[in-house]
Design brief:
about 140 residues; alpha+beta; 4-stranded antiparallel beta sheet; two-stranded antiparallel sheet; about 40% helix
């Protein structure tokens, strides 16, 4: 004969950490804030250098586009050169997307891809969904 089954009270679930609400900076970690500051500083630096050096010089193709956009791959290369990140490009893009969702950086997509260097467009592409992707860090 089996002993009667003991009733075990269910244990309460641990409290869930609330999801990050857009604009809610208290839920964004300091490491993400610092990452975003470094991204923005690197993008601004590249834009300044391009303006001083003449934006239309071949040197800046694949780095900047227009007056306020820097290719994601160029920001990654600059931050790697400065030893501000050790992340490979795919991981860097994941962090960049997190920072964008927390409204810490501004990203935009390349609409005139035929007027841009194909390698920079391809390497900078940060795919969000089947129909949406980003290519630039935008500084306004």
């Amino acid at each position: 004969m089996k002993p009667p089954a003991r009733s075990v009270a269910p244990q309460p679930l641990p409290p869930r950490k609330p999801a990050v609400v857009e604009g809610d900076m208290e839920e964004v970690g300091e490491d993400l804030k610092e990452f975003a500051q470094l991204v923005n500083a690197s993008a601004k630096s590249l834009l300044r250098q391009a303006r001083r050096g003449g934006q239309h010089q071949r040197k800046w193709e694949g780095v900047v586009f227009g007056r306020a956009k820097v290719f994601i791959c160029a920001v990654h290369e600059e931050m790697t050169r400065r030893v501000e990140t050790r992340a490979k490009l795919p991981r860097f893009k994941q962090q960049l997307l997190r920072a964008q969702r927390a409204e810490l950086v501004s990203l935009s997509r390349a609409d005139l891809v035929e007027a841009m260097p194909p390698r920079a467009v391809r390497e900078s592409e940060l795919t969000v969904s089947d129909t949406w992707s980003f290519h630039f860090v935008r500084i306004d």
